[in-house]
Amino acid sequence: MSEQVPTLADFRSDTVTKATPGMRAAIAAADVGDDVYGEDPTVNALQDRMAHLTGKEAALFFPAATQSNLAAVLSHCQRGDEYIIGRNYHILINEVSGTAALGGAAPWPIETDEGGSLTAEAVREAVKEPDQHHPVTRLLCLENTVHGSPQPVDLIDDLTATARDCSLSVHLDGARLFNAATALNVPVADIIRNVDTASICLSKGLGAPMGAMLVGDGDSIARAFRLRKMLGGGMRQVGHMAAACMYALDHHVDRLAEDHENAALIADGFRRIDGLGVRQATNMVWLTPPAEHHGALAAHLAADGLLLWPWKPTMRIVTHLDVDAGQAQALVDSVHSFFNQV
Ligand SMILES: Cc1ncc(COP(=O)(O)O)c(C=O)c1O
After folding, report:
1. Domain range holding 54?
2. DSSP notation for 3-43
């Protein structure tokens, strides 16, 4: 995109949001201490709140979910162990193979359906028989939402029961767990009631500048606490960021429904154009234009100041705190004007 074009709206990710004036005031006013010494009152309050909210024994604040996922996997797996994971899940594809590179824990990918769901049967089949030739299958890694698609509570419970039956621990990457809870209309605690550990992002739909929480049983979180230090995630007066997360929990959870409505508005607008592949779930829209128009459409949107990920063959659009219904409509209008002229 030409640098001269002013950005009208940024739909690349819900990570692009900037702290609101209210959140900045909360950051400035935070009571802080050295969190490596366990002395940051705002971090401690946030961890207590998240443990309570998610129905878990303990919670630990991390700079990012990549690190909380890594610490979680390594808290469950020893070097040489294996974990089962969906083939398109974030830990497998977008976290730099940290579990293998840094912890010697190898993924065993299994298929998902179009909505990102695993089946209990596939999980059971993936568990290795005890044999000197095999790694020990130790963990099942779930995700919710998966590329926007909420995974129902019954499915998570079913997969978790299967994992237990096979003596596996369960970790759930809930970077967008609050989006899933909003779409399913259930408390977040219900979705993760049977998993051992779950990561939850505060820096995506909830709009904090940084931060993820690992929640789980006391023993897993105690192991993750040491791992966080090993991974360089021990932070100091990070209560300023915890205050942003507190603010996000107070002010930005209920409004996630608006993001989902804006995503639906975009998807409905796209569906009025013949020949487009359109999928929408929670705050994500996936647009597959005819291959011959892909490049020109991407250039047209960029020229209109509308940012999205123009991946091939399918582009990704994400709604969030910093885009409103008017900007969502502007995206629809721009796509319509493109297809009116080709
Ligand atoms: C599903 C999922 N899990 C984990 C992460 C990692 O989060 P972070 O950017 O905080 O490391 C992301 C980031 O986009 C994500 O989408």
Report:
1. 21-251
2. TTSPPSEE-S-TT-----HHHHHHHHH-----GGGT--HHH
